[in-house]
From TrEMBL:
GO biological process, one term: methylation
Protein name: Ubiquinone biosynthesis O-methyltransferase
Membrane spanning stretches: none
Job description of the protein: O-methyltransferase that catalyzes the 2 O-methylation steps in the ubiquinone biosynthetic pathway.
UniProt keywords, alphabetically: Methyltransferase, S-adenosyl-L-methionine, Transferase, Ubiquinone, Ubiquinone biosynthesis
InterPro entries: SAM-dependent_MTases_sf, UbiG_MeTrfase
Residues noted as binding S-adenosyl-L-methionine in the record, renumbered to the chain: R37, G56, D77, M122
Enzyme nomenclature, EC number: 2.1.1.222, 2.1.1.64
CDD domains in UniProt: AdoMet_MTases
Length: 234
């Protein structure tokens, strides 16, 4: 079976790896987003003492937060340089109960099926050739009753205007070419893939970015960036 990665997508994030933890870099919005998405998770589950895997962890911004909350965390990604940055940053911060691996969700699911209480998969699905395959792997990784959280970008004219034109060309928050509009995912598609994998969709929430103060907030508007909470039945 071919590995579910896009070499061009990996190359984008490899090139930016050294700036991952710079809050004024291209990852400035990601740093602003992290507390909001973590608060969203907190509304459903306390990760302290739970086994957690962060799929598509990149340089480890969310991964470290999960570990600081007491989770026993594994961060996985297929990029080499960002993973090295993540490992060094965790070492520098003295964070324990945190492991990084260069492996796909599908490969990990064959090794550790049914081993995790929580799976996060944030800003990753729009960068792989087969998002449904990742979601199926997330289901396989979870214990019965486990939680899965996803975030991605909707596909419509408004999301193209805000997430591509606005973020990459006008505000220059992200490097040009970071996103491909055709890879964006409608909530109905994400929910369908989750249902086909065996996950129950619990909630959708939108994320609204304010570039004037570099802040995100949760909203009922899922037309651009959004989160989804789902659960594996007991």
């Amino acid at each position: 079976m071919p590995i579910n990665v896009d070499p061009a997508e990996l190359a984008k994030f490899e090139a930016l790896a050294s700036r991952w933890w710079d809050p004024e870099s291209e990852f400035k919005p990601l740093h602003a987003l992290n507390p909001v998405r973590m608060n969203y998770l907190d509304g459903y589950v306390n990760v302290a003492g739970l086994k957690v895997v962060d799929v598509g962890c990149g340089g480890g911004i969310l991964t470290e937060t999960l570990a600081k909350r007491g989770g026993i965390v594994t961060g996985i990604d297929m990029t080499d340089a960002p993973l090295k940055v993540a490992q060094l940053h965790a070492l520098d911060q003295g964070i324990e109960q945190l492991t990084y691996r260069q492996i796909t969700a599908e490969q990990l699911a064959t090794e550790e099926s049914g081993q995790y209480d929580v799976v996060t998969c944030m800003e990753m699905l729009e960068h792989v050739p087969d998002p449904a395959s990742v979601i199926a792997a997330v289901h396989a990784l979870l214990k019965p009753g486990g939680w899965a959280f996803f975030s991605t970008i909707n596909r419509n004219p408004k999301s193209w205007l805000f997430a591509v034109v606005g973020a990459e060309y006008v505000l220059k928050l992200l490097p040009k070419g970071t996103h491909e509009f055709k890879k964006f995912i409608r909530p109905g598609e994400l929910s369908k893939w989750a249902r086909q994998a065996g996950l129950k969709t619990i909630d959708f929430r939108g994320l609204r970015y304010n570039p004037l103060n570099n802040s995100f907030k949760l909203t009922d508007d899922v037309s651009v960036n959004y989160l989804m909470a789902s659960r594996k039945p007991e």
